[in-house]
UniProtKB/TrEMBL annotation:
This is Diaminopropionate ammonia-lyase. Residues 38-359 form the Tryptophan synthase beta chain-like PALP domain. The keyword Magnesium does not apply. Transmembrane segments: none annotated. It holds the Pfam family PALP. It comes from Microvirga arabica.
Length: 402
């Protein structure tokens, strides 16, 4: 299913707070923060010429966030960045002077952070980032996971010293429980979704994601004409679309938001013209995108700068995982987790449908940008769906490059 953006705010300027959050100066500040991370390095940008030819477009470039900061997903940029920002703000308040990033590990700052606890709900990736950020600064973390989060993903978060709290129900249930418990205990909620009265911290999380867009714009030979990005609550889609709109202005690309068919909260919000919570049904294989209510901040951005919304089926996502693992010709092999290739699945659906292709003006001159938002964050599940271990896929690329 495909839906052009028909919201009354479509193509209107971003709200001032969102323009400040997602603009170029803010993204440059995020990049400055990253220079203080020991394992920071730009993630790869892959060119897939054989796939582009098959799809009838000029180029397909994929930004591979499976290599981000040792956490395996783009979310490494958001949660930890927000935690660091919040710690510096609290230290500045308690110490009575402005504390810069260079002082993050000073004894007096560490004394402040030792008394702080950050909390969040997660499907896996965001919680890992928040927990890592807390460990980096010496704070405590409490991470709430719903019943659908695999034991392997829970263990990957717990290794950063987080207190893990299981919640019955869905991701949205874990969000509500995290907010309730944090309010009782005086913890700081570092969520990647927003609700009425809680917008600034999710905005900081989204701001963290802009760093990968800055990297991509430097890596791309020319700006993209089309961008397909997957959405859960919408944070990454809004960060990418909002930053590109601000950075490129009239030259900004056509932006398409891709939802899982079984958790299409942004698609249904676009259809309704307002944020809506959808019913929980059968779980989607795209576990990191299994969200049933959009972030209010993300919706506010996307209602203005997204050009279209579409949905893809579970089998589309699994087919992309396999295609990227076993590429044609000299295209590189890429490890994409269950949610990582959903944007590419959207592109493949779009080019196969003449009406959608025409509506988006996808043609032989189109330069398409995709983000592989995660690698194999659950290697056992990856092997089950692809039939190969993630390291076997990676090694096949090394052999091809040798």
């Amino acid at each position: 299913m495909f839906l052009p953006n028909q919201h009354p705010d479509y193509r209107k300027p971003l709200a001032p707070v969102d323009a400040e959050t997602l603009g170029v100066p803010a993204a440059e500040e995020v990049e400055r923060y990253l220079t203080y991370r020991d394992n920071h390095a730009p993630t790869p940008l892959h060119t897939l010429p054989v796939l582009a030819a098959e799809l009838g477009v000029n180029t397909v470039h994929i930004k591979d966030e499976g290599f981000r900061l040792g956490l395996g997903s783009f979310k490494a940029l958001g949660g930890s960045y927000a935690v660091i920002r919040l710690v510096l703000e609290e230290a500045s308040r308690q110490l009575g002077r402005a504390i810069d990033l260079a002082e993050l590990h000073a004894p007096e700052v560490r004394a402040v952070t030792a008394g702080m606890t950050v909390a969040c709900a997660t499907d896996g990736n965001h919680g890992r980032s928040v927990a890592q950020g807390a460990q980096l600064v010496g704070a405590r973390s409490a991470i709430f996971v719903h019943s659908g989060v695999s034991d392997e993903r829970v263990a990957a978060i717990a290794r950063f010293g987080a207190e893990m709290i299981r919640v019955e129900g869905t991701y949205d249930d874990s969000v509500a429980e995290a907010a309730r418990v944090a309010a009782e205990k005086g913890w700081i909620v570092v969520s990647d979704t927003s609700w009425p009265g809680y917008e600034r911290i999710p905005g900081l999380v989204m701001q963290g994601y802009t760093a990968m867009v800055r990297e991509a714009l430097r890596q791309l030979p020319s700006p993209p004409t089309h961008v397909f990005v997957q959405a859960g609550v919408g944070g990454v889609a809004a960060a990418v679309a909002g930053h590109l709109a601000l950075a490129l202005g009239d030259q900004r690309p056509v932006f398409v938001v891709v939802d899982p068919a079984r958790a299409a909260c942004l698609f249904e919000s676009a259809r309704a013209g307002r944020p809506v919570k959808i019913e929980h049904g059968e779980p989607t294989v795209m576990a990191m995108l299994e969200c049933y209510e959009p972030s209010l901040v993300a919706w506010r951005v996307l209602s203005r700068v997204a050009d279209a919304f579409m949905i893809v089926a579970d089998e589309d996502a699994v087919a992309v995982m396999n295609r990227l693992a076993r590429p044609a010709g000299r295209d590189p092999a890429i490890v994409a987790g269950e949610s990582g290739g959903a944007g590419l699945a959207g592109l493949m659906r779009a080019v196969a449908d003449p009406e959608i292709r025409a509506a988006l003006d996808l043609n032989e001159a189109s330069r398409v940008f995709i983000i592989n938002t995660e690698g194999a964050t659950d290697p056992e599940r990856y092997e089950e769906l692809v039939g190969m271990r993630p390291d076997a896929v990676t090694n096949s690329t090394r052999r091809a490059d040798a």
